[in-house]
Amino acid sequence: MLSLLIPFTLIFTYVWSTATDIVFSDDIFLIKGGFIESYLKGSLSFEELWHPLNFGRTLGYNLLQLVNIKFFAMNSRILVLLVPFFMLASAILIYRNYKKSLEPENSPEFIAATFFIIALIIFNVIQWEGLIVGRVLEFQPALPFFIASFISLESFLFKGKREYLPVAFIFTSLAMLVFNGRLNLSFIPTLGIIYLCYLMINRADLTKDFWLRTLMISLFLTFLTFLYLFKLNANESSAYNAAANIFSRPLEALQFFFAALGSSIVGIDVFYTFSYISFNHIVVLGAVTALLYALALTLFFRSHMYERTYLPFFLILQTLFFLGFVMMGRFEFGKDYGMNSRYTCVSVYGLVALVWIFIFTLFNYEKQKALLKGVIFMGFFIIISGLLITSIIEWRIQPERKVFFAQLRDIAMRVDTATDEELLKIGDEPERVRDALRILREHQLNVYRHSSENSQ
Predict the structure, then answer these.
(1) Domain extent listing, the chain
(2) Stated pTM of the model
């Protein structure tokens, strides 16, 4: 309990003391011309809630917003306070498999003590944007649902536990159709690779019952994928241009990917704080991180860890595919764009898998050579020290974020007289921001929900 409670308390304290009740950033697009305006006019349809945005459907997040409007007058702070609890759900699910993977060779006290390190990674403020910016909340609820989906699919498909079939159907449906956070793009190929690895390892022991389970799950996933993609209307030319752009500049694309990996250990605010840390340093760190991933995957198979759980393998592949798709969609904005903290909401789970595999190798497998032990402990040092430095920086600049949010609130209260430059701090399109805030003021929502403020 302590290994979960202490890190959870730290992250909840950060969110509680930092988050603001004002709507800003991409949420503005949900108000003016979005489903929120339709809801307030009484003309909302399910099609609007299901409508795709940037090759993703955000039904779950949209429903949370409607509940927030109905019961809390669209207090943005209420939504982000849910984030630590979604993270806690992910941590509990991971601990469940972590404990099973280390038993019975290790004591419960050892398992809890080592999981404390993993919990500190999960509940790390390196992902600050995903902790206090409402629109980025779409990533956080997705993670526990995808983790629960994989655990249940693994238990049913690989271990033949039929009691997990209803759970697999429920969590996979919620993950892919409701709380997907655009992780569908990385979820399906991740499942495919893990399934192929299982086939290669167990090819001599496959039964008719296994193939029947495979058929059931394949049909089910195909159906969910069809529902997700139906009338998605993805911009094919945009996807083609992104691919062409990457292939025309492969070295810069590789730098983008490595920078995204590196910023999962040393956050972007550390990069901005210390002038002597350059973009190339983050790229080198990302390359080292990629080597650690390769080592962890090698150890995962060499130690036969897959006989106990495939979850670490899933977390690593999910991270790598996710960052790969981020590169496809965001490379045009610059090779440093992948360093944004919003993406670390997913990539920290790759680090969780790294540490998990390293701990398993050191304490559950045959005696290791001194060189391998040295590399593993070096990996521990890089990950822990990087996240520790980032945490210190994030807590140091936390008061500045509170001041910035207070400024946004003041601008919103002067919506009619605020300049375009001021409104740009709230959203990218000043006139749309102004219209959205006026809609909120008309319906006494968000920062306008208190009559005393409305009279000012």
Answers:
(1) 22-74+399-454, 83-230+250-396
(2) 0.93
